[in-house]
User: Fold this.
Amino acid sequence: MSAVSAADILSPVHAPGARSLASDGSLDWLRDAGHTLITVSDSAILVYFAVINTCYLLLILVAVGELVRRLRRASFAGYEDASASPFTPPVSLIMPAYNEETSIAEAVRAMLLLRYPVFEVVVVDDGSADGTLDALRDAFDLVEVERVVPDDVPVRGGVQSVHLPRGGPVPLVVARKENGGKADALNAGINLARYPLLCMVDADSILDSESLLAVAKPFCDDPLRVVATGGVVGIANGCTVVAGRVVEPRVPRELLGRIQVVEYLRAFMLGRTGWSKVGGLLVIAGAFGLFRRDMVVAVGGMDAGCIGEDAELVVRLHRYLRDQGRDYRIVFVSEPISWSEAPSTRKALSGQRRRWHRGLTEILLKHRRMIGNPRYGRIGLVSLPFYVFFELLAPVIELAGLVLVPVSVLLGAVDPDFVWRFLLVAYGYALVVSLVSLAVEEYAFHRFARSRDIWGAVVGAIAENIGYRQLTAWWRLRGMVQGLRGSPQAWGSIPRSGFAETGQAGAGGGDRV
Assistant:
């Protein structure tokens, strides 16, 4: 069968003997305009992917310079002095929980085993429907106590009860409240917290023993300017956990998990390290972030109406401090690791990515006046425009490219060689960025001791471009539509299997509450 050309498609069908409208050229302009539009669109999409991948590569190169500098100073980190110093600022770790029965006890043990002079762990059970509170009560022998909860930031769901460990020197506070969402649970934790620094962690997270010291160090080095720090988040799936700590990082056997390992390394370690270096960091993940309590209270706490409350808080801090004309820093620290369970099913991953992109949409809409505004410096002129064009609109452009390029070839609007150029720039270039990320991580930290884990991550980097990216683009597009429509939101919990615990240890450390 012969190929169908653009002229065949656009030429009208008419009866024998009837005058063809196209014969006198009256429709030539339509055919030419359509051909030109398709060609220009294809070229624009090609340029878009070239620019976005180049930007990511530049961020990686910036991050490499910062990582090299930190590696040279690693032996002078001063963690020994900080862990014993009375001047190290105390920290309240706030852990919101909703239906986290399978992993909550292990996660709290990991928090209590952190190496830090003075801290407390504040767990807020946001009206869980499972046995989250019972799991904590059994693990730490909790008893209910009377405690006045301040109202420094607004809370929609009232605190119903407060619990402490019975008689032991364990710095743990557990609050049970009415369901109000994750941001509302964090606000309740902020009100309960009694220390000047707040570390917000997910209930399914496990931290390395020195993680808190690492993210607190910028506050010690520059206490007047640093208002927030964030750290690396890794995939816990497949890792070995002993006594509430990850002792053997591994790449999951499942392909879905391997792909997410590559994503997290690229985004958390290198992407955000690069943004931090250029002073444009917009995201500190809720899985692991440290904030000055007075600054969080000053901006009104977490936004309970935004599904991406962690990133929204960072943008709001930028806005508030820029409006105040303050000299400040928001820093990303690449050394520490927070381990979290990643979605292990397509359904769970779909929900996560839709929530993430919906949150991004809501944040950019809420703070749209900052976009392109010189008043907000690099945040307004660089970071926010980047997130609009290369994060928010990325799924729209990618899906448009997947439709337009084949149609263009079918209509003869572009040369078939264009398809190879498109694949090379959109996916081949992206693969190079991912492989460079893996190489940098291996050089800088060498977290994966087994070669099979490294090769597993390489397989994930390759597989990411075959089906996975296209699916996540569709899910992200749906999330953007939900954000634009303002659809009802909920916690959106991910099914948990718990960590592969091979050893146990009692909780300890920190200062008694």
